[in-house]
Design the sequence.
């Protein structure tokens, strides 16, 4: 097993740095490596672009995260806070942000559709975003700043008031006090500030209630409280999240497979015609196109439908022991790799399958390197090329279906 893997690796590296079995000079090898890097960067850039061709679950359901946050929020004034979030970032904006239009822009030049419920959600937000509502939020924020200023002033006055009381208890004269405000005046200012804070707080409460009870706000809040609508959005978002990695892998494969197919055809053609440089370049391209495909497949196994399937099974059977998913991958991935290697050995790189083509091109039946017609052993790997015919006892090529001397059918099992 390990000998086969080592032989495959040796064949891979020899093919990557030789032209017609002759070593490539170092300068040319560096040029090819630079070309490889440039192409690999562009391949990953293309993969990134095509993976975003289909809109993501967040783009298809842009209202889901805000809707979910509203339902999990425990604050008493969460209705006002939700509406304030719509209005606050755009207080100084001349034109409205047009939430519905922003949501729908995700469909432009992309596949997939934005949820109709989320488009309605955006339309309700657009209705809330008007000049009157923005002015209410601006007024509330200004009054809150006044309250903060008064509370800060009260903290300073209390500190001076406590110090003045201590001086008075100690019998110190008022002209020797370190505080500029007497205890009586400090008490008056505290009372006045507290009255102002109470008035401002009541005004803020009235403004908040005015904003929340507006018709456009009531319509929006009723939508947020609609369990049926939210459950529809949540189910759609989860389904989109489940299939999105599979969709991405499908588009990435659609991008890579034609490149792999063309590179393979060019490589086979160049090998038959003995175009050494074209064969070398096409081999490098073939490897470069295969690397991202393999990486994306492994990435899909970690986050795609397969992972979700294993996650659900282990969750159902073993509850919180989700770390066992890692054990499953540690056991399964080597088995898959072993199966791929066996497939390559038996089908793709099987000398028995490729023997006829290699004999016709005067190549070693085992390693496919160029040899002379009369060579019985390969000078590169030492493999013996012949076998004795059981009928005429003359030497004939291994792995070919009939004897070259008498035509007797050979057992290739």
Sequence:
């Amino acid at each position: 097993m390990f000998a086969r893997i080592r032989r495959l690796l040796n064949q891979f590296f020899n093919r990557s740095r030789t032209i017609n079995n002759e070593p490539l000079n170092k300068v040319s090898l560096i040029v090819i490596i630079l070309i490889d890097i440039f192409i690999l960067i562009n391949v990953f850039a293309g993969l990134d672009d095509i993976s975003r061709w289909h809109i993501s679950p967040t783009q298809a359901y842009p209202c889901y995260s805000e809707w979910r946050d509203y339902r999990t929020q425990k604050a008493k004034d969460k209705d006002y806070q939700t509406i304030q979030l719509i209005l606050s970032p755009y207080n100084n904006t001349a034109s409205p942000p047009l939430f519905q239009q922003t949501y729908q822009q995700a469909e432009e030049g992309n596949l997939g559709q934005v949820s109709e419920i989320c488009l309605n959600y955006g339309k309700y937000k657009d209705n809330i975003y008007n000049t009157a509502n923005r002015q209410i939020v601006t007024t509330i924020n200004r009054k809150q700043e006044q309250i903060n200023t008064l509370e800060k002033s009260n903290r300073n006055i209390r500190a001076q008031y406590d110090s003045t009381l201590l001086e008075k208890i100690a019998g110190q004269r008022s002209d020797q006090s370190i505080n500029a405000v007497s205890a009586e005046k400090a008490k008056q200012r505290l009372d006045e500030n507290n009255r102002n804070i109470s008035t401002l707080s009541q005004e803020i409460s009235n403004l908040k209630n005015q904003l929340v009870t507006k018709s456009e706000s009531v319509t929006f809040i009723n939508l947020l409280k609609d369990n049926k609508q939210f459950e529809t959005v949540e189910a759609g978002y989860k389904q989109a999240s489940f299939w999105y990695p599979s969709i991405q892998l499908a588009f990435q494969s659609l991008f890579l497979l034609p490149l792999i197919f063309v590179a393979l055809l060019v490589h086979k053609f160049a090998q038959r015609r003995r175009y050494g440089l074209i064969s070398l370049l096409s081999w490098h391209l073939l490897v470069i196109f295969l690397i991202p495909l393999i990486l994306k497949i492994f990435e899909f196994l970690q986050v795609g439908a397969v992972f979700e399937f294993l996650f659900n099974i282990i969750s159902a059977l073993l509850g919180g022991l989700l770390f066992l998913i890692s054990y499953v991958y540690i056991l399964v991935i080597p088995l898959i790799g072993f199966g791929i290697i066996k497939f390559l050995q038996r089908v793709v790189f099987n000398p028995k399958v490729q023997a006829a083509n290699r004999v016709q091109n005067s190549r070693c039946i085992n390693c496919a390197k160029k040899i002379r017609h009369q060579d019985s052993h390969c000078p590169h790997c030492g493999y013996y090329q012949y076998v004795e015919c059981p009928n005429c006892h003359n030497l004939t090529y291994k792995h070919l279906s009939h004897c070259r001397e008498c035509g007797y059918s050979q057992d290739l099992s």
Remarks:
- Confidence is low (pLDDT under 50) at residues 175-180.
